[in-house]
Amino acid sequence: MSGRSIKSAERTLGLFELFSREQRPVTVGRVSTALGIPQPSVSMLLRNLTDLGYLEYDRSSRSYSPSIRVALLGGWINRRFGEAGAIGAHLNTLQRKVGESAFLGIQNGASAQYVISQQPETPDRLDVSSGLYRSLTCSAMGRALLSLKPDGEVLSWARRCNVEATEERFKVHEPDFLKLIHEVRERGYAMTEGDVTPGLGAIAIPFAPPMGSMPMALGSGGPLHRLRSKKDLILTALHEFKSAFEGRPAEDRQVPEGSFEEN
User: Fold this and answer.
1) Fewest C-beta in 10 Å: which of 31, 50, 129, 258?
2) Please, is 232 exposed, middle or buried when counting C-beta atoms within 10 Å of its C-beta (0-12, 13-18, 19+)?
3) Domains parsed from the chain with CATH numbers
4) Model confidence pLDDT, tens digit, residues 122-146
5) CA distance linking residue 55 with residue 231, whole number of Å
C-alpha cells in the first residue's frame, strides 16, 4: 500500500473517531482543526465520503454527519461483540464517579494507544482522546499491559521503546524497569506520577474486554495532587468496572447495585 493510501485511510478513520468523540455534525473547519489536516484536503475527503454514501451533508449548516450506511456496516460487529457497547456508558459512569479522566487503551506497536476516553469539564485535567499515543514503558496503561507479558518479552519491548524514544527521559534502565513491572504484577495496578507529562499522572489496571482477544488497560488520570488523594477511590472504581465485565456470562454482567452505580 502506498504512503498516500495509508494517509487517506488514517484520515478517514480519524474522521469517524472525531464523530464518535463529539457525537454531532462537524464542519470542514472543525475537522481541519481537530485532525490537523489542511482544509482543501478535508473538503475533498468529506466530498468523497458523501459521494460514496457514508456521510450526509446539511447545506443549511454546512456540516457533515455519518449516514445510515455507516450504522449498517457495524451491525455484524455489534452482534459479534455483544456487550462492547456498554463499555462507553460504564466508562462515563466511572468518570463521573472519580471526577477525573477515564480511559481504555491497547498496545499498538511500541506505544500504548487510547481507544476510548471520558473527560471532566475542567481545564486542569488529563487531556486524552481516542487515537492518542503514549509511551509503552512510561505510561500507566502501557505498564499495565506489559505486566501481562513474560519477563523476556517485557525486556524486548523496553529495548525497542528505548530505541524509539523521542526524549531521553522516556528511556528506561532495563533491570530497574523489569523490577517495576514485577511490582505492578504484584499489586495489580500501575501508577505514574509525572512520567509522561509533568504534574499529571494516571492509575491503570489490565482489563480483558468482552470482545475479541486483545488485552486492554483501564485507567483514570489527572493532576497529581488530586490523583494521590483519590487513589483508593479510583482503584475501587476501576475494579468495580472490571468485575462488571470480566469472568461472567453476558447476561450476568450487570453493575453491582450500590457499588459501581453513581451515588
Assistant:
1) 258
2) exposed
3) 3-72 (1.10.10.10), 81-252 (3.30.450.40)
4) 889 998 877 788 999 999 999 999 9
5) 43
